[in-house]
Specification:
The chain has about 350 residues and is of the alpha/beta class. Helices cover about 45% and strands about 10% of the residues.
C-alpha cells in the first residue's frame, strides 16, 4: 500500500514538473510574442504600411500584429475590412472603384475583435473611409463560440470601445494569454523556435516574384492574404467533409442569438455610419457540402437565423448586404472554395467586385 501511494505521488510530482517545464519553455521562447512588453511586430508592420508584402513563416499573434499595423500606418484608406479569415482574401483589386483598401481581418474574428479593432483604427485614422466591409459571420451572436484570442492584446481596447458606446461593462481579464503557456500548439512552435535558434518574428518581407509559396502564406501590402500553394492545391471536397466531421467551427451550442451581442453589433455599425461611411455586411458562403450539412441539422438552425437577422437589420438601417451562406444563391459552386469555409481569392474577389459595382459612392 505504501509503495502504491509512493508511486501515485511520484507520478503527480512528475506531471507537475512536466507542466511547469512546458509553461517555462513557452514563456521563454514565446514564438508569437504573447508575453513580450515590446512591440515585436513594429518593423514588419511598418514595412507593410510602406507598401511591402510579407511572408508568414510561422505562428504569430495576428491581433497584436494588426494593432501594430494600425499604429504604424497613416490610416488613410477608402475601404476597411473587418472580420475573420473568411474575408482575408478581399484585396485592392476587389474595390478598385472606391480606392485603397486596408484589411484588418484576423483569424476566427469574434464580435469583440471587430469592435476593438475598429476602435483602434478610428483613434488613428487620418481620413474617414468611404466603405467598411464587415464579415457577417454566423457566430458573432453565439456566446458559446469559445473564441477568446481577442483577450491577448485587445481586451482593454474592447472595454474602452464599449464604454464609448455607452455600455456598462466590467474590466476584461487577460487570462487567455496565460492559457497559451499550456497549449500544445504553442509548445510545438516554441520547440521549433528553440531548435532552429530563430530569434526573428515569423513574418518576413516578401522579396519573391511568385504569387505564393508552397507552404507559406503571403500578406499583400493591403493586408489581404494569399494562402500557400499546399493549401490551395488540396482536395476542397475532402477538406469540407473533414470540416463537418467533428465540431463545426464556432457554431456548436448555438442555442440562441444573444441579444446583448446584437445590441453591440448595432452600436458598432451606427458608430461607423456616424462618420458618413457606408457599411457593407458580407455574408461569406460555405462550401456546398458544409452548407447542405448545416441546413439539415436542427442544432445549427441559428446559423441561418443569424443570416435572416443580418438581412433584416441591413434593410432597416441603411446597410448594404451582399453574399449569403448558400453558395448557389449567389451563383457559386464547389470550385470557388479551397476548404469548408474559405473561398479562393479569385472567386471571392470577383464576386465582391461585381456585388459592389452598383454602389453609388
Amino acid at each position: 500500500m505504501v509503495q502504491a501511494k509512493r508511486y501515485v505521488f511520484d507520478c503527480v510530482i512528475g506531471l507537475l514538473v512536466l507542466v511547469l517545464c512546458t509553461a517555462l519553455l513557452n514563456w521563454w521562447q514565446d514564438p508569437a510574442g504573447a508575453f513580450s512588453d515590446d512591440n515585436v511586430y513594429e518593423s514588419t508592420a511598418k514595412a507593410l504600411c510602406e507598401g511591402k508584402g510579407l511572408v508568414i513563416s510561422g505562428n504569430y499573434d495576428e491581433r497584436a500584429f494588426i494593432k501594430s499595423v494600425v499604429w504604424q500606418g497613416d490610416n488613410d484608406y477608402d475601404v476597411v475590412v473587418l472580420g475573420s479569415s473568411r474575408v482575408m482574401s478581399i484585396g485592392d483589386e476587389s474595390v478598385s472603384k472606391f480606392g485603397a483598401l486596408r484589411s484588418l481581418a484576423v483569424s476566427g474574428a469574434a464580435l469583440e475583435d471587430d469592435v476593438a479593432i475598429w476602435h483602434c483604427y478610428k483613434k488613428k485614422m487620418s481620413s474617414v473611409p468611404k466603405v467598411v466591409i464587415i464579415d457577417g459571420a454566423p457566430w458573432l451572436f453565439n456566446k458559446n463560440s469559445e473564441e477568446t484570442r481577442w483577450k491577448n492584446k485587445l481586451a482593454l481596447d474592447y472595454v474602452e470601445a464599449l464604454h464609448d458606446m455607452g455600455f456598462s461593462v466590467v474590466e476584461a481579464d487577460d487570462y487567455n494569454r496565460y492559457k497559451t503557456l499550456f497549449s500544445m500548439m504553442y509548445t510545438k512552435e516554441s520547440l521549433k523556435k528553440l531548435c532552429t535558434n530563430k530569434e526573428s518574428v515569423p513574418i518576413e518581407i516578401w522579396n519573391e516574384t511568385e504569387n505564393s509559396y508552397e507552404d507559406k502564406q503571403i500578406l499583400h501590402s493591403d493586408g489581404s492574404r494569399i494562402y500557400s500553394q499546399k493549401t490551395l492545391q488540396g482536395d476542397a471536397d475532402a477538406s469540407a467533409r473533414a470540416y463537418i466531421s467533428g465540431k463545426v467551427y464556432h457554431v456548436e451550442e448555438y442555442n440562441n442569438l444573444d441579444t446583448e451581442r446584437q445590441k453591440i453589433f448595432e452600436k458598432l455599425v451606427q458608430d461607423i455610419q456616424s462618420k458618413g461611411t457606408t457599411v457593407v455586411i458580407f455574408l461569406p458562403p460555405y462550401h456546398p457540402i458544409v452548407y447542405d450539412y448545416l441546413k439539415k441539422e436542427a442544432k445549427y438552425s441559428n446559423v441561418f437565423a443569424a443570416e435572416r437577422w443580418y438581412r433584416s437589420f441591413a434593410a432597416e438601417n441603411g446597410v448594404v448586404i451582399i453574399g449569403g451562406y448558400n453558395p448557389s444563391s449567389i451563383g457559386l459552386d464547389d470550385k470557388a472554395f479551397f476548404d469548408g469555409m474559405h473561398m479562393r481569392r479569385g472567386a471571392q474577389g470577383e464576386y465582391v467586385k461585381k456585388a459592389l459595382m452598383n454602389l453609388n459612392l
